[in-house]
Amino acid sequence: MYATPVQELIDELGRLPGIGPKSAQRIAFHILKSPAEDAARLANAVNAAKTRVTWCRRCFNFAETDPSADDGTGVECDICSNPRRDPSVLCVVEEPRHVVAIEKSGWFKGRYHVLMGALSPIDGIFAEQLRIKELLARIEAEGVSEVILCTDPDQEGSATAMYLVREFKHLPVKLKVTKVAVGLPVGSELEFADELTLTMALEDRREVS
Amino acid sequence: MYIEHLAVWDYRNFGRAELWPAQEGVTLLAGPNGSGKTNLLEAVGYAASLRSFRASPTASLVRAGCQQGLVSAAVRRDGRALQLEAEVLVSGRGRLRLNRQAVRRPEDFVGALLVTVFSPDDIELVKGGPQARRDYLDAMIVALSPKLALVAANLERALRQRNALLRSAGGVLRPGMEGVLDVWDDKVAEAGEALVTAREQLVMALVPEVEAAYRELGGREKVELHYERSWDGALLDALRTSRALDLRRGVTGAGPQRDELHFCLDGLVARMQASQGQQRSLALALRLGGHALVTRRQGTVPVLLLDDVFSELDGRRSAALAACLPPGQVLLTAAGAVPADLSVAAAAEVSAGSVFSSPPGGAHGPDGSEGVRDGS
Ligand SMILES: Nc1ncnc2c1ncn2[C@@H]1O[C@H](COP(=O)(O)OP(=O)(O)OP(=O)(O)O)[C@@H](O)[C@H]1O
Ligand SMILES: [Mg+2]
Ligand SMILES: [Zn+2]
User: What is the predicted ipTM?
Assistant: First the structure.
């Protein structure tokens, strides 16, 4: 058993996703060995992120808190508050990190909606636990004409997409709904694509002439 | 395909052991009870599937008192050399290497080496519950078409989700839950229809192979295989129909997870009416028939692992098996005598944690009689 503060640090680190007891111990020792200002920077970064970052009231992406702009109804993220983003196209994702991934491509010019997860009864996640009600409300209120479903290609993600498609049918608006294609990685050779990716890419093939 | 060389470290009862099987024909692993013969076959099976065919957890493969062990196999597949290395750990997942490159995803490792295993426990295929028979079909489906592993995994996942939903409903669906159940019905139906189609096609292809194997093993009865679905019509409709009942029971009543594969010998139900010896022969025919089918479809012969086959068969059936072994590499264990007319290409002596086996063309001669001792 280590001195209490050391053990507490190990325990806290061990609660992080993807960090097992061994890694927790290694990280804790690394922190203890490093200069005090390094450790302080880490602690400050955690604190600052926790106090300054909140959820966008519109799309549930990360947003920075801004006491001057907050009238009590919450703040908007950089994307929602950017007038150059097209409000008529919504890209629906499961997590904020997916927003980051799509933003990197620079291709998408619309806005996002983060569901905060996917349907997974095993984890106690049903429709009410996701930001689905809010999504349906946005479509009417913001005059959305196209939704791109960008959930994960696993069972939970595709079940969620399927659920949304059915919910959209009950809306009194005409909506174009698309799903991202699962395709071949660019710059790789066909023969190295795994069978499944290849099969899905073939199923999603497009007419060229 | 064949194994050129197998080595294990701190694995089961071996500190370190090596085996050089014959490229073609039978390599006999002989030795007393408890010496480690089955353990060696299990190591080959582990290199192929990362699972023990005795259904032991991986941790129990690590030699008692050690934290980790290693299974390494040098394989030739259609002229290509493959070096497979799999760590076995007491806790956590062991590292994998293929041709000295680290492999992250187990699915990129599994299937490089193909094996067909027959073990005395396989009588459960005939005598035991339906799960063993469904597993038998599903394992072969994946061996024949690796991408269908995803279909089976998707079905399992969708069923777990649907059952979790049924149980959390506690008998009655709250409003709003219905739509969620609808999509999990769809997911179960989608994967379920794909899997049942694959199983039914497989059974059709297996029938002549199993019949032929049973006959070659000296069986005279007519063998029938019959796949029975647990529902009629479209699976999606069946799920909708059984919804109320499923909600009460908290489990999904229709789907491939409830299907049955029936075996009959001369019209009698093999599970209940066949003799012990007939059941053994049928279990062996199911494995050898599957082996023949995979060989033909994959264009490469899996390594055949036969554990203790002769101990359970009478003289006539043993002789028949010895005479009808398929071409390719066969690793065969025996604690006692083997039929006189079994042609043995190489022999290894296993005794309490060590193996006497000789490299081909090595200084010790190819017959294995003057082996190197690779004890711990
Ligand atoms: N993790 C382990 N560490 C050490 N020894 C083990 C381990 N697991 C099993 N053993 C030993 O391995 C032996 C069993 O080996 P195995 O089943 O291969 O025997 P066998 O040669 O096939 O015998 P039989 O002829 O009875 O089938 C047992 O004596 C058991 O104690
Ligand atoms: Mg044995
Ligand atoms: Zn936003």
Answer: 0.77
